[in-house]
Write a structure and sequence with these properties.
With 205 residues, this protein is an alpha+beta fold. It is built from 2 helices and 9 strands; from the N terminus they run H-E-E-E-E-E-E-E-E-E-H. The N and C termini lie far apart (75 Å).
C-alpha cells in the first residue's frame, strides 16, 4: 500500500510539473500580442504628474532620488474594445536597452520569456483595470537599480496567471524613448560622513 501511495504521489507530481510548464514555461514574446500602449515618464520628485500627461526630465535620473511614472492602456487603434476583458494583472519591469547589454551576457535578450534577461528589474505588479482609460503608477526608483539605459515593458496575465499579452515604451528595435539611470549620490555622502566621524573619534581617543 505504501509503495502504491508513493507511485501515485510521484505521478501527481509529474502531472503537476507538466501543467506548470504548459501554463508558464516556453512562452515566446514574439507569440504574444503587443496590445498595450506603454509610456515611461522619468522625472524629478518636485515635478507634479497627471495620468495621461507625460513629464520628461532631460538627463540622467538618479536611483533612490528621482521618480519614474508609467502609463499603460489598451491600444485601441489596433485592437477592438474588449480585447483586454480577460486581463487580470499587470507586471511592469525596467528593461535594459541594447546599449547596456553589450558585453553583458547576464542581460542577454531571449525570445523565451523565462530565459530572457532583458527585463530583470521589478517596478510594479497590480490589478489590470480595463474600465480605466489610462492606468498609472509612479514611484521613486530603488537605489539598487544599476546605472544603465532602460525602457519599460508591461506583461499582462489572465486570471490563471498565464502570460497573455504585453506592451513596451519603445519599438521593436528598442531605439527610442530610452532613459538613463545613474547611481544615487546619497550613499557615498553617508559613507563619507561616517568615515569622518570614525577618523575624529580615532584621534580624540
Amino acid at each position: 500500500m505504501a509503495s502504491h501511495g508513493l507511485m501515485l504521489l510521484a505521478s501527481l507530481l509529474v502531472l503537476l510539473s507538466c501543467l506548470t510548464e504548459t501554463a508558464y514555461g516556453g512562452i515566446l514574446l514574439s507569440s504574444l500580442p503587443n496590445t498595450l500602449d506603454v509610456s515611461a515618464s522619468p522625472h524629478k520628485p518636485d515635478q507634479v504628474t497627471t495620468p495621461g500627461v507625460l513629464l520628461y526630465f532631460v538627463g540622467n535620473i538618479i536611483a533612490g532620488e528621482d521618480k519614474l511614472g508609467v502609463i499603460w492602456s489598451l491600444n485601441n487603434r489596433s485592437f477592438p474594445v474588449g480585447t483586454d476583458a480577460a486581463y487580470k494583472t499587470v507586471n511592469i519591469k525596467l528593461c535594459y536597452a541594447p546599449v547596456s547589454q553589450v558585453g553583458k551576457p547576464g542581460r542577454k535578450t531571449e525570445d523565451d520569456v523565462d530565459k530572457d534577461k532583458t527585463c530583470q528589474i521589478e517596478f510594479y505588479t497590480g490589478p489590470y483595470n480595463a474600465s480605466i482609460k489610462w492606468q498609472y503608477y509612479e514611484s521613486t526608483l530603488d537605489r539598487h537599480v544599476p546605472h544603465a539605459s532602460y525602457f519599460v515593458r508591461a506583461y499582462v496575465n489572465d486570471s490563471a496567471g498565464v502570460l497573455v499579452a504585453y506592451g513596451q515604451s519603445t519599438g521593436p528595435n528598442k531605439d527610442y524613448n530610452i532613459f538613463e539611470v545613474s547611481g544615487s549620490h546619497k550613499r557615498p555622502k553617508m559613507v563619507s560622513i561616517w568615515f569622518s566621524v570614525f577618523v575624529l573619534f580615532f584621534f580624540v581617543a
